[in-house]
UniProtKB/TrEMBL annotation:
Keyword field contains ATP-binding: no
InterPro entries associated with the record: OMP_Slp
PANTHER family with a match to the protein in the record: OUTER MEMBRANE PROTEIN SLP
PROSITE patterns noted in UniProt: PROKAR_LIPOPROTEIN
Record-linked Pfam families: Slp (PF03843)
Keyword annotations of the record: Lipoprotein, Signal
Signal peptide: 1-27
Protein name: Slp family lipoprotein
Amino acid sequence: MRTRPVSKLIRLALPAVLLTLAACAPAPIYKTSGAAVIATPAQVAQTPERYSNGEVIWGGRIVRVNVFSDHSEIELLAYPLDSSQRPKANDSGNGRFIAVLHGYAEPLDYPAGALMTVSGKLDGSRAGKVGEADYVFPLVGVAQSHVWTPAEMAKGRNNVHFGVGVGIGIH
């Protein structure tokens, strides 16, 4: 049986194309440790004592910022993170959490609706409300945080799409 030159070319080119596309994504911004908690904020809210002092890297959309005399709190609607630790805001939410920053955090630097990733340790939970509904918020003592710009969110995303059919794209 003879192989067709086209199928052989595809078999040779496909790994190179996939490797090139994977190389386009930015690297994660925070290093993960083996002790990192692999749970969503919604899961942690159900049994916060089980995850006490666990390390997390979580992200989401900023809901609000509260500034106190010695610390600031940023409420986030959590989303899963991509391989670069950017929140996937088109995915379904994974609950809410509060990022606790030491000192003053300028609310204009953390605008409502912006996407953010934090690295830190779980530090208990707090009962609160989302609208009129009771809610349990996991608290994260933030070691590092990053608010994503639209350019950073678009970086590493390609405009190459595979499919069968005919299409016209105007950008």
